[in-house]
């Protein structure tokens, strides 16, 4: 068996295992807990039958069960894009300030009196985009070097985090609590409307990302190599940044900043496959599996206490980040 054949075999194996984990997590989310469904109930509902009680439970639980893998896939792809662009395992939206920008956008909306879901979502998206634009402008010096992008992103994130903390101290208690709850990152209360909206936007972005897959592989060999292969480097970087920002922003707008999935998923997929390159499909599936497992843990690990999934991913991701820093 050649090295290339072995890598392809591992890719198929890892992707299949990730899909199995995702399906199992979705099923367990529907079945475990009070008023849980049985496998027979789920089959009947999927075939158009089932009792009114089962339909009610399904409508209540299914959006959250499906949102976890969908949102995790978006975050995994976003992390893969920025890590490919920067050629650095730390080059994820969590590190370079996009989550802090979304948080700041929500805070500004609350400060001017906004309170609806749509207003908060718009604030998060605009905040992410403005933060990404600021990082892009400050990091650009005749080109966009990956390491400079990370350092500038950390600096921008620190400035935005300082503003966010100032707001928490000075704001009205109700506003501060709302911002804190949103900032924890949670899938509680997920409904079909935001899930469908995120899924549709993600599918459009996936269509845009498809033609860029070969460009991202070329970037991993270096910008000079990519340019020699006919890639318009700066234009490709701008498009990649925009696509990565959208993937992160749509999830953050709906669920808040769910940290470390973007950072960890591409690297976990890369190490499982033992490939020198990052994979879009692998990053998406591992991201989906990581967030699905994280949300299931958040719902049932502590019994009646259900922490936000962001708290679980921060805990696990923090341990992963420490290991990454010590090793690399």
TrEMBL record:
Primary location: membrane
Membrane topology qualifier: Multi-pass membrane protein
Localization of this protein: Cell membrane
Membrane spanning residue stretches: 12-32, 65-83, 95-113, 120-140, 146-169, 190-212, 238-265, 308-326
Domain of life according to the entry: Bacteria
Coiled coil: none
Similarity remark: Belongs to the binding-protein-dependent transport system permease family. FecCD subfamily.
UniProt protein name: Iron chelate uptake ABC transporter family permease subunit
